[in-house]
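Can you give me the bound-state structure? Components:
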Amino acid sequence: MAILSEFYLLLSAAVFSIGLYGILTRSNALVFLMSVELMLNAANINLVAFSFHYGNVTGQVFSLFTMALAAAEVAIGIGIVLVLYRNFEDIDVTKAATMRW
Amino acid sequence: MVVEIGGFAVADWVTLAPTLVLVAASLLVFLIDTVEPRPGSSSNAVLAAVTTVGSLLAFLVAGYLLVVGVGQERVTGPVSMFNGQLVVDGMSLFFVVIVGSVTALVALASYDYLAGEAYQAEYYALVLLAATGMSLMASANSLATAFVCLELSSLPSYALVAFYKDNRGSVEASLKYFLVGALSSSVLVYGISLVYAASGRLQFGAVAEQLGARPEFAGVLGVGVVMVLLGFAFKTASVPFHFWAPEAYEGAPAPVSAFLSSASKAAGFVLAFRLFLTAFPEVGGLAGGDPAVDWVVAVQVLAVVTMFVGNFAAATQEKVKRMLAYSSVGHAGYVLIGLAAISAPDSGFVLGASMMHLLVYGFMNTGAFLFVALAEQWGIGRTFQDFNGLSTQAPLACAAMTVFLFSLAGLPIGGGFISKLYLLAATAKAGTWLLGAALIVNSALSLYYYSRVVKAMWFEEPDGTVEIESYPTSLYAAVVIAAVATVVLLPAFGLLSPSAFNAASGLF
Amino acid sequence: MSNPWIAIGALALVAVVIPVSMLTMSRLLRPSVPEQGKRAVYESGEVPTGDTRIRFNIQYYMVALLFVVFDIETVLIFPWTVIYRDAVANVGLARVLLPMLAFIGVLVVALAWAWRNGAVRWVRSPRTTAQRVDRKS
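Here's the bound-state model for the whole set.
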């Protein structure tokens, strides 16, 4: 018995919301990176599930690209967190506020 | 698979030559730095020359292809390759012209700006890679390639903003840019996954075919379209993902600010145009009938809010660079009119007006930021008062800056005047009076804060503490070229606008 | 027709009940003897040195970054290998092989650059050198 595609949508929406919640409530830059990763993987769930639903591999291939880009993004992100730590002695994103928002 | 360019039959991927030139230039920069890897020892002149020549070549090749009519109805029609993942048409070539010209100006200016800095090769390589991503964004014809190109242009930009890694402002700017960018790119990719869920396709044309006028999952699709729109709002620095822009532009090295605010914004817009007009025309109600997802209204709201937020925030700023950053947000609002007024009978004209505004904006905004780079080189401060009486010492640069600012405001001194006039005419054609009124009110307001800089430069007395010692040649050259281009675009506007209108109507 | 999810639910229930009941049972039966050695960090029988939370040398970051690059490269090559034979039969060797060679060529240029710029060179920090000297004497 196949699982209905709606359930995958619910699952991915839940994962996406958890990631969004993490971004909005935490100020640690590394937790932020993890939350972004959750949100990207929520999209991957959708892509793979509906790739199966429609019977084409487009979505699966795109999810590979998403993973690759997520890795690249995290690599850049950790680099920025490193220079942030060197300049502000903290990885709290709210501490870096010398300019006005 | 074979297209004809100027009488020669060549393979279809040759039409991507401008992008390939940028790729080759970036690899060349890497190779030069591989041979001479010590930081700072690779010659700045060689690296800057490779970057400038590479982007200039991309600009010229794209211009040539545009002139001989590649990808346009009258010669070959849109050249679609890799199963429709990329497409070269008038629109993509037009935007490669914009990206190439901005990159060339920025690279030229960077030669003086970077003199004596470490990590020059990295800087030029990142600029070229980001430019590659932007020029490829103009050709992206599938949600997959669109996302990959978007990231290719974003990721080097994050690193470029943090170029001064021991400067707290630069690092902070980069952090905020990255945080908002990472958030918005995950929102975008989630939106893409929802569109895929509703249509089962990623290629733009196929998405439109599958969705039709009555899509099955209208709710899912609606959320997806809105999320994709938000993702593009980041790239174009529009509301609601605009608040990275003032921080990133202020903290970044000034040539990088110029690059991001002009080229990156143009690339974001071309992708948004192509996506919304080829993938979602029917669900947006453009083909007649009730829209399933009324994204046109969403864009109209975003356009008006963006104009007001950008211009009102700019009017309250004390620092010139930050004022320019907010005005860049305001200009994103003007360009959004191209999508917001798309329901007009003559939609090629509406979109063409937006494209022309981006072209002119590419020169005048880049020039204005490069003038700020010049001011940073001279070591004068960042506020309006610090510019007092600058014209007594640097009249040429100040004259150029005056041209940029008045053209940005829409006075008939540069091409910005006509492009704004065309945008206004577009809103009138579409009957969206609110947009037109917002355009006029905001242009009037922008005249106030732009003229504050002009007043400071020409009419205020200098306080005599600032001595300008050096006149960096390449930075000066870049500013003057941008000024000349801005002025020339006023009479030459009519020469270029038909190609923009043709390119725009090719999308319908 | 019974729902197959009932079996999965029952399995999940059993999987939770067994470990929880075993833990509770042993908690009720065992004598409580608090002792220093029980609380110490377990390091395979060695006497533990230092804290659990240690800082890694920042140079691991560069190595990790290069690992990620080549790890992801494999992910992108993988779909290509799956279709390779069919594609060669259909469109010929050149159109299948050359794009991948171009892709790997770009990565090779980047790797050469990273190598020459010292991404994989292990720089000894003054502190580790000092520790070496201490141990010798």
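A couple of observations. The first strand of chain B starts at residue 2 and ends at 5. DSSP finds 17 helices and four strands in chain B.
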